[in-house]
Q: What sequence folds into this?
């Protein structure tokens, strides 16, 4: 993956498991930068309708081959990347990508896909100026999604890792799967130089720290691009 | 994939490659009949034919919204689906798999769209090396005439997304020439058997059967 410095805009990614507060933090960042007059866009993972239908059809028939899913998720990502992220960066916007490529890496690697293979597929993408990983211990994740009271049928077969034969019960499989996913995220956070944020800290504290770090990145980036510092 | 050792499946994988209008599908059908008449189990797998992914590709093509990377990744998804759920099970069951186009189609076409070859080769490194690959060579002008006898040229096969020319015929010739030279660049590395697509149907079929002989004999 290439670095982002060639574009006038700045790319920031936020990664983390379900319930880690990605959406909340991304939205608060948007408010902050809008109020300061910085052009900002939140790029969430809204799967393209056509691809979403294919994915759900395949899931329903239990065709869950990780190679095929990696390509489909990559096809979905490339659409978002080329039609949303790149144009915004070209227009000089601050792009907050909620879920970036590392989510897809995680799903694939847990299913036995070689890390270099999946990383190569996403070689067309850009390395964000910074990726923040919102780290949540599995116990807290379970509390946040109401694991105890949530009914078995409300767990997605694939997101519970049922295709991996971890357990015959969806709920149990979900716990094992999410535990492994968190371990993998922590490894990736190290190897890809992500900044880990404690997702257990109060929301406003996390936000304050994110704002401070992104402010600095923006200032450095603008200096590098020969633009004036501060808001617009 | 060039570094992948030969596969150890009991089945055999036979591939035809080349641009459209080269007569390769006709030859594949004849080969399938021949093999079946001799009692071999045959599975035919065609490019872009997976039940859930190919309709997505067709719709996206109709809307003409595919960038080269999106085009490549969706076709890769279609291929890996057929590879996992059609080709490999048949190879495991000891069948002769006749694949009308294989990963070389993706590599040649997508390279012609400016995608790095290294990226494509890595994406498809999971795919086994065929036991036999026929490359049907035809010049783009002839292929254009053959195709347009039965249907109009399509947007993407003419490479109209590449802005090479506003004239579909000219664009087709320019784009398919690029595809052709990508095939030529791969032919030695992957051991393609070149078939002159202007030869008679019978002669070509006879040659294919001859080359197939040792591979089929090793099955029984």
A:
């Amino acid at each position: 993956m290439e670095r982002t410095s060639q574009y006038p805009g700045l790319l920031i990614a936020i990664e983390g498991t379900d319930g880690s507060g990605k959406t909340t933090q991304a939205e608060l960042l948007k408010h902050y930068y809008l109020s300061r007059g910085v052009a900002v866009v939140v790029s969430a993972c809204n799967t393209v309708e056509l691809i979403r239908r294919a994915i759900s059809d395949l899931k329903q028939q239990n065709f869950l081959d990780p190679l095929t899913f990696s390509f489909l998720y990559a096809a979905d990502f490339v659409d978002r990347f080329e039609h949303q992220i790149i144009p915004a960066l070209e227009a000089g916007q601050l792009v907050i990508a909620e879920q970036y490529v590392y989510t897809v890496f995680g799903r694939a690697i847990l299913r036995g896909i070689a890390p270099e293979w999946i990383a190569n597929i996403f070689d067309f993408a850009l390395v964000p100026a910074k990726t923040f990983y919102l780290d949540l211990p599995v116990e807290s994740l379970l509390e946040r999604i109401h694991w105890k009271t949530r009914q078995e049928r409300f767990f997605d077969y694939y997101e519970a890792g049922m295709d991996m034969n971890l357990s015959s019960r969806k709920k149990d499989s979900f716990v094992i799967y999410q535990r492994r996913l968190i371990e993998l995220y922590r490894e990736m956070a190290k190897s890809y130089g992500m900044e880990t944020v404690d997702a257990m800290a109060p929301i406003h504290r996390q936000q304050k720290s994110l704002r401070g770090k992104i402010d600095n990145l923006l200032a450095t980036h603008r200096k590098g691009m020969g633009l004036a510092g501060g808001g617009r | 994939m060039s570094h992948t050792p030969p596969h150890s499946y009991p089945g055999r994988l036979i591939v035809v490659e080349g641009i459209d209008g080269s007569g390769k599908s006709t030859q594949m059908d004849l080969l399938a009949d021949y093999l079946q008449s001799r009692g071999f189990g045959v599975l035919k797998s065609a490019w872009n034919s997976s039940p859930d992914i190919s309709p997505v590709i067709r719709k996206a093509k109709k809307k003409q919204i595919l960038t080269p990377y999106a085009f490549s990744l969706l076709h890769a998804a279609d291929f890996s689906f057929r590879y996992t759920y059609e080709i490999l099970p048949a190879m495991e069951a000891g069948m002769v798999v006749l694949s009308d186009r294989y990963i070389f189609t993706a590599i040649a076409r997508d390279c012609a769209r400016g995608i790095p070859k290294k990226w494509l080769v890595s994406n498809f490194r999971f795919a086994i090396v065929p036991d036999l690959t026929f490359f049907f060579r035809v010049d783009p002008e002839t292929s254009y005439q053959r195709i347009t006898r039965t249907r109009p040229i399509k947007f993407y096969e003419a490479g109209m997304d590449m802005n090479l020319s506003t004239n579909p015929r000219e664009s087709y010739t320019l784009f398919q020439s690029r595809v052709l030279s990508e095939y030529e660049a791969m032919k030695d590395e992957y051991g393609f058997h070149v078939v002159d697509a202007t030869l008679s149907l019978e002669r070509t079929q006879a040659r294919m059967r001859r080359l197939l002989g040792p591979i089929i004999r090793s099955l029984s």
